[in-house]
Amino acid sequence: MLSRTAGNLYWMGRYLERADFTARLIEATQRLAALPSSYGGAGNAWESALAATWMTRAHKDRGLALDEHQVSDFLTLDPANPSSIRSCLEAARANARSVRTALTEEAWEAINTAWLEISRYGTHLESREALGPLLELIKHAVAAYDGAAQRTMLRGDAYWFVNLGSAIERADNSARLLDVKYHLLLPRGESVGGSLDYFQWTTILRTVSAMTAYRWVYRDSVKPWLVADLLILNRQIPRSLASCYEEILRHLDLLASVTGKRGPAHRLASAGNNRLSQSNIDKIFADGLHEFLTRFIVENNKLGEAIAEQYLF
């Protein structure tokens, strides 16, 4: 496979995953912002949404207000924001169109339909009422693509590169979501383990569709260290860091079986997977959750760069 084709598929997977995450994040932020003002106010929740997408500086530079309408508009339909849902779907479609023959008709139609549907919303949210249907559209569109790809695409290098991109992006999103919760969401003066803290951790679980999984695995009330354990170390849940790295390593191994070559990306992925396998949540909290997640995000970015150098250039 040409490196350009591999790059298109890899970034298509990343952009679709980012669009889905942003939609889920906005839904979660709406729940947090709906809390009584005595719990810290809505501004903190919308600030956290920007932080989780690394768009705080870009939003501030635009001179936009830190409220629901302007933040959600910026994160959903703003064409000037390269990480907005609209921009992500546009980029995913452009990449898919460049490698149209590598995709099945069903997979292409799912992506193309998603772009056509979001295009009807224009470049700005007309009202608060339009936001809910837009977010549902995005979640269903990405799920439709996942289903089409799972059922119709050959298990070959095209499929592996798309899933490799998705797993790298998913790991990054989960790590940033946890880090933002731990450092930004809980207002000063509010106790860890209090009612607000409980509600926020519950919202984080709902953001990644893991509330039911949490109950099945732990059969306990929501506790911060158990949520972190689920989203970092539990390989049963697809959005956990450990599960993502297991998937990354598997797809790199499959690519190596075709090319007959291994490189820096394999070594970094294997090292990351081993670190997660040897970790436990008590040690992570003792050493500092923020420090652990910061290191993980840095290493995950290095892995993304190694994959690009090894396969995409």
Radius of gyration: 19 Å
Low-confidence stretches: 186-192
Distance between the termini: 12 Å
Structural class: mainly alpha
> Number of helical segments?
15
Largest beta-sheet characterization: none
H and E order: HHHHHHHHHHHHHHH
Describe it.
With 313 residues, the chain is an all-alpha fold. The protein folds into two domains: 1-153, no CATH class; 154-313, no CATH class. It contains 15 helices and no strands. The chain has helices spanning 3-33, 42-52, 56-61, 68-76, 85-98, 105-119, 131-152, 157-185, 195-207, 211-218, 224-232, 241-259, 264-277, 281-287, 289-312. The longest helix is centred in the N-terminal third of the chain and has 31 residues, at 3-33. The radius of gyration is 19 Å and the shape is globular.
Summarize the structure.
The protein has 313 residues and is mainly α.
Q: What tags apply to this protein structure?
A:
313 residues, mainly alpha, 74% helix, 2 domains
